[in-house]
Amino acid sequence: MSVFDELVGQRAVREQLQRAAHAARLLAARFDEESAEGAEEGSRGAPADAPISGSDAALSQAWLFTGPPGSGRSIAARALAAALECTGEEPGCGQCHACQTVLAGTHPDVTLLTTEGVTITADQTRAIVAESYTAPGSGRWRIIIIEDADRMLERTTNVLLKAIEEPPERTFWMLCTPSPDDVLPTIRSRCRRVNLVVPAAEDVAELLVRRDGIEPQRALQAARAAQSHIGRARGLATDVQVRQQREETLLGALGIRGTGDAVIVAQRVFDHAKKQADAQAERDNERERQELLATLGVREGARVPPAVRAQVRELEEKQKRRATRTQRDVLDRDMVDLLSLYRDILTVQLGAQVPLINADLTKQIEQAAAAASSEQSVRRMDAIATARQRLAGNVAPQLAIEAMMVALRPQG
Length: 412
Known about the structure:
Mean pLDDT: 87
Largest sheet: 5 strands, parallel
Radius of gyration: 24 Å
Structural class: alpha/beta
Distance between the termini: 57 Å
Low-confidence stretches: 43-51
């Protein structure tokens, strides 16, 4: 099984990454040969620095993976990283130790920078830049993957510029963002772009059937409801609670008749998001705190000495940021589901001959379409889009959700 097999509906991307992996293997062999020759001659044993991009048209030391949520940006980045480190006959074989450890996130030369907070901090970025200048220990390359690079502030992104512009010869950078415009032009211009597209629901369903053993009809329904987001589709297909919560949100919006209903539904949606964030915090926070205290030499149940309280406070702040992001991500996912609902209603109103995303709610969608005009559906979709923008702009989540729900009520 190749590391590229989970790039669903991304044939062009798969071919692009396979060419890069083959070119990198040839280049690594050349580097090794030059190092051996240099050692024989008594030199320092390192080949002269040269940009990889100049060595092969298929290769670059900096990559920018872009595509809508669920398209598989981070999957593509990890697949390329695995193919670069692969020791099998075919780059990206998926069977060798290097491929398996990269995909599992345990390869010592592949670093994944993610954020559990709202933004990636400058300190995190400086640390990862410093790491990029260390030589690979066991693999051919040092690889840095930054997921959600769009969560980096402009001053933070500037920290990356020099490292991406002149990286060490055995270092690769991989940035993942929804759009090329999410990073500075100076960064964008120095990266090889990999543009992923939304895969067809049928392709996602086929993956769920093959990989997870899900019944085909349920897999297809989940893939459509998730709008081809692979992770979300798997959740909908395998978790009854996830399906029930989604249905409750959609039916709640359709049941709004006035401002009072809107506030009640908004509170229910907000409480669910907070509950999910709190559940994750309860699951992770105490464990992380105990691990930190053990690392600092503080026995379980003992009083935390003043010398290490700063580290504990830093961990607590990180946990608060993670809870904030989790809550906002859940709310944004709910709003995406609502957008799909009113898209279906508009589809019925206009008589478009396309499949419904929420086919399991066909009856309710047809009733809602008959009770409103297409202009009202468009206004409601605009209200949801505005709420998403407000949430991204750090507006109080509960206020943004309430304003959106009020805008969804029937209006003359």
